[in-house]
Amino acid sequence: MGLTHPRHRRRPQTEGSANPLFGREQRTVARHELPRREMDPDTAYQIVHDELMLDGNARLNLATFVSTWAEPQAERLMAECADKNMIDKDEYPQTAELEVRCTAMLARLWHAPDAHQAVGCSTTGSSEAAMLAGLALKRRWQHARRAAGKSAERPNLVMGVNVQVCWEKFAAYFEVEARYVPMDGDRYHLSAQGAAELCDENTIGVIAVLGSTFDGSYEPVADIAQALDDLQQSSGWDIPLHVDAASGGMIAPFLDPDLPWDFRLPRVASINTSGHKYGLVMPGVGWALWRDAAALPEDLIFHVDYLGGDMPTFALNFSRPGAQVIAQYYNFLRLGFDGYRRVQQTCRDVATRLAGEIAKLGPFELITDGSELPVFAVRLREDIDNFSVFDVSAALREHGWLVPAYTFPANRTDLAALRIVVRNGFGHDLADLLLDDLRRVLPRLQTQQTPHRDADNAGGFAHGAETKNPQQPGRR
């Protein structure tokens, strides 16, 4: 037998060096209990990484309003600040200072009478911001009622049935009667008359939505404010208006500057928006602003020292990363007014063009066309009875697209629609690819004898277009 050269002799192998990566994985991986022993970090990473491949592609998710793209510099800043606790303003005073700057910028953007007197804060998203605004409305109403020697036991909140589900949660969590104005015919959101008709002396406020999640349309904020002004003249009820501008608050100032919806209307007491939607930040950050200190009762505010001064805080969440606030300031600094205008105009241009092209395909009719929020909804023509919007959604999912299908709430539960949200990062090229896939699936759907899917087995998530719990508007 020949001798093996020393360079060719097999050397001892260690567990983590030569063993192939997937050979290190255990036969079974713990999923619902802690494993007994530690694991190689590369192996643990690969296991988690591979499972996440089963998620949808965020960039192809046309259901969500949440940002799915950011500049590398913003991502770098977020990584650098991931360990900073936003609530610890004494330890991270400069992060707190950037939060203050952001609220001041928003106060000016939304035409606060005195940006220095406007009160605001960051939140984990527009839902928390809405909760804070609702709490301020309730507490303000309670103080006024008690000062007048009246009962403060039965508060109610008036809004359209199209509001985001966070308002239903607010009413349930904080014991406020939710009064919903139903849809009617081709009106898919709150009307001024409908809002005024449901108000009474126990109404803590009215919610107007700048950008409905159902179809992307703006509610007539100025008309609602005028109706509440008229109601005060006739009844004496001074009912504040809150604007849920989760999406529209970062669209209208840049694309619809002459639209009166913000603090230019004296009736508007507070506004919320979502920084991680059209504010262009990765999730999650939101913002809540009040017209002035009088709109936010002092007993809801806590005071902390930072930079040798006083900083009022108002939040439901405590420990949370400061990274998203930093990214918001980066975007404000990086883009400025003109940069935001360009980004949002591109989104609207893509939305309106895509809506028009889909309308040309034949089976679809536009409910909205993307000319307010860069969001639009479509339905099938009334004579299409062999496939449903839920079939269309499922067929597009086969190509990786997530396009939600859902039914509208009372009184339009007969209406089923598809909704497409155009965000920064979804440009004309991707829109053309979506159109190509839609053209591919339609011939197959048109050969069906009957619809295969409906609202009960759609299997999708409506992303804010969920139907509210059925109840009679204006009743407990």
UniProtKB/TrEMBL annotation:
Keywords for this protein: Decarboxylase, Lyase, Pyridoxal phosphate
Basic residues: bias regions: 1-11
Pfam families: Pyridoxal_deC
Region spans: Disordered: 1-34, 445-476
EC number(s) per entry: 4.1.1.15
Known cofactor(s): pyridoxal 5'-phosphate
Gene Ontology molecular function: glutamate decarboxylase activity
Start-end of Basic and acidic residues biased regions: 24-34
Enzyme class: lyase
Catalytic activity: L-glutamate + H(+) = 4-aminobutanoate + CO2
Family, as annotated: Belongs to the group II decarboxylase family.
Full protein name: Glutamate decarboxylase
